[in-house]
Amino acid sequence: MHFAASILTADFGRLREEIQEAERAGVDWIHLDVMDGVFVPNLTFGPILVEAVRRVTALPLDVHLMIVHPERYLEDFAHAGADHITVHVEATYHPHRAVERIKDLGKKAGLAINPGTPLQAFEPLLPYLDLALLMTVNPGFGGQRYIPTSTERIRGLKALRDRLNPGCLIEVDGGVNARTVGEVYQAGADVAVVGSALFNGRPVADNLRALREVLE
Ligand SMILES: O=C(CO)[C@@H](O)[C@H](O)COP(=O)(O)O
């Protein structure tokens, strides 16, 4: 299983150190949550921070756009150095067009759905995706509790993925920690986004080891 470290709960005053500590600890990707205060009730950052993070790590940058009409900013995030760009199916009238545009920009394309969106929303687009991101909390904030019914949804998404596009990775996002990581892995997640269970004032290497030990 791959771990994508979400910087949302990192100390932004020491962001370079936090990211480099995560890289040394062995996380696989850096996950960046872009929020617009409209699609989700929180604001974070835009391409300028992605560009700054690009300069301090060689890890793949996994950019999760929680913004309405994300197609307006795809070029900006691609040029800032994103490797993966994920848009929400609920945030655009034209998710297929957005996914194709991300791929035309030479990036891996992801589609995300919220906990209240039926899994079937993935079905028409799965053949075009590199990543299918299932929110396992309501998006907007780090440190929330994993929604238990997500586990059955991960199993359902795995079945869809295996049928329609075995090369697409299943990414789960929200509330993944040492208590829940085993369950999401068993259900079929390939990548876990982890924020507060990695960036919490304790050494990232110890936190990552605790997650990996559950999977041994
Ligand atoms: O997208 C989001 C929140 O909207 C996530 O990426 C969180 O950043 C995950 O944080 P934890 O639940 O792991 O603390």
TL;DR of this structure?
With 216 residues, the protein is α/β, with parallel strands linked by helices.
Number of helices: 7
Which of globular, elongated, flat, extended, rod-shaped describes the shape? globular
User: Mind telling me the CATH class?
Assistant: Alpha Beta
Q: Give a count of the beta strands, DSSP E runs of length 2 or more.
A: 8
Rg value: 16 Å
| CATH fold node name | TIM Barrel
The amount of beta strand, in percent, is 15-25%
CATH architecture label:
Alpha-Beta Barrel
Ligand set: 5-O-phosphono-D-xylulose
Lateral arrangement of strands in the main beta sheet: 1-2-3-4-5-6-7-8
The profile of the biggest β sheet is: 8 strands, parallel, barrel
Q: What is the structural class?
A: alpha/beta
End-to-end separation in angstroms reads: 11 Å
Quaternary organisation of the protein chains: single chain
CATH superfamily descriptor: Aldolase class I
Please, how many domains? 1
Provide a descriptive summary of the structure in words.
This protein is α/β, with parallel strands linked by helices. An 8-stranded parallel β-barrel has the order 1-2-3-4-5-6-7-8, surrounded by 6 helices. Helix 1 packs parallel to helix 7. The protein is globular and about 40 Å long. It starts with a strand and ends with a helix. The relative contact order is 0.17. The model has no long low-confidence stretch (mean pLDDT 98). The site of 5-O-phosphono-D-xylulose has 22 residues, from strand 2 and strand 8.
Write the layout of secondary structure elements.
Layout: E1 2-6, H1 15-25, E2 29-35, H2 47-54, E3 61-66, H3 74-80, E4 84-88, H4 95-104, E5 108-113, E6 131-135, H5 150-164, E7 169-173, H6 181-187, E8 191-194, H7 204-215
Parallel strand pairs: 1-2, 1-8, 2-3, 3-4, 4-5, 5-6, 6-7, 7-8
Helix pairs in contact: 1-7, 2-3
The structure holds 5-O-phosphono-D-xylulose (5SP).
